[in-house]
UniProtKB/TrEMBL annotation:
Residue intervals of the HTH lysR-type domain: 1-58
One GO cellular component term noted in the UniProt record for this chain: protein-DNA complex
Higher taxonomy: Bacteria, Bacillati, Bacillota, Bacilli, Bacillales
CDD domains found in the cross-reference section: PBP2_LTTR_substrate
Species assigned in the record: Paenibacillus antibioticophila
Protein known as: LysR family transcriptional regulator
Keywords assigned by UniProt, alphabetized: DNA-binding, Transcription, Transcription regulation
GO MF entry, a single one: DNA-binding transcription factor activity
Length: 293
């Protein structure tokens, strides 16, 4: 089986659309269709089926995709290891992150040190990063721990805590800290319940016997910050994000007596080859966070 046919198959399996897949591959749609028919003939079974305008993987197609992804990954790992013998350095890192703000400063400093390394950072939910690592679409994850999986290695970086963010013109803006019961009288703009920061807050509220009911639920930290600036209410966000807002119209108030906390760390697949670029990026993050640099 030609490796080229597997490449064509994997792109079509991702797109499930012949025209889009052909565009990605830089070939015509008839050419792609012909190549897929060759692969199906070689395997003796259909890999795709069409229903109306939609394309689906068959059971055989799903089996091939799983193994083709692994073949593709193993070949890439082999190239990296062989490249090490001749001093070749990797040019690209794919990173899944539970919030780009967790990496912004580290990305800037790493790029200044290694401008030839291409960094692709995707803001993803933890389960999306988890899946991306297992399917070899990501090299590294920066997520909230623990992420239990025997196929992954986790390395802690720092503890994230939640803080209250409110307009500097609000009557509470000058207090040194605020308790969860005190927030029951404040209009709140919070994450939807599917987000980890909201789950951390809700768990702390349950432990404290407090019920916080937001007046608005939003899906991004930036939108919550904008609402707080306009005096709509207070929001509860990670301290690492609050630290980079640099807004002069906001006050950041620690939660008391103990702010909800969650460990942030690196995760990567055990079978991933730590080439110089990936290893250097991991060391760079650990030096920045573990040593406070």
């Amino acid at each position: 089986m030609e490796h080229r046919l597997l490449d064509y198959f994997l792109v079509l399996a991702e797109e499930l659309h012949f025209t889009k897949a052909a565009d990605r591959l830089g070939i015509t749609q008839p050419t792609l269709s012909h190549q897929i028919k060759l692969l199906e003939h070689e395997l003796g079974t259909p890999l795709f089926q069409r229903s109306g305008k939609k394309t689906y993987l068959t059971s055989a197609g799903n089996i091939l995709m799983e193994h083709a992804q692994q073949v593709h990954h193993e070949l890439a790992q082999a190239r990296l290891k062989i490249g090490e013998l001749s001093g070749l350095k990797r040019g690209r890192l794919r990173i899944g992150c539970s919030g780009n703000h967790l990496l912004t400063e580290a990305l800037i400093s790493f790029h200044q040190l290694h401008p030839d390394i291409e960094l692709t950072v995707m803001e993803l939910a933890t389960d999306e990063t988890h899946e991306g690592l297992l399917t070899n679409r990501l090299d590294l994850g920066v997520v909230f721990l623990p992420l239990e999986d025997e196929q992954l290695i986790s390395r802690p970086l720092f503890n994230e805590e939640l803080v209250c963010i409110i307009s500097k013109h609000h009557k509470l803006a000058g207090i040194p800290q605020i308790t969860l019961p005190e927030l029951t009288d404040v209009p709140l703009i919070l994450f939807q319940q599917k987000f980890l920061a909201r789950q951390m807050l809700d768990q702390a509220c349950r432990q404290a016997g407090v019920a916080l009911r937001p007046v608005i639920e939003l899906s991004t930290m930036d939108s919550q910050i904008r609402m707080a600036e306009q005096g709509v209410g207070a929001t509860i966000l990670p301290a690492s994000y609050a630290a980079i807002t640099r807004s002069t119209d906001l006050a950041i108030i620690p939660l008391a007596p103990a702010a909800p906390r969650k460990e942030v760390g690196l995760v990567y697949k055990k079978s991933t080859f730590l080439d110089p670029a990936l290893n250097q990026f991991i060391l760079h993050l650990e030096a920045r966070y573990l040593q406070g640099k």
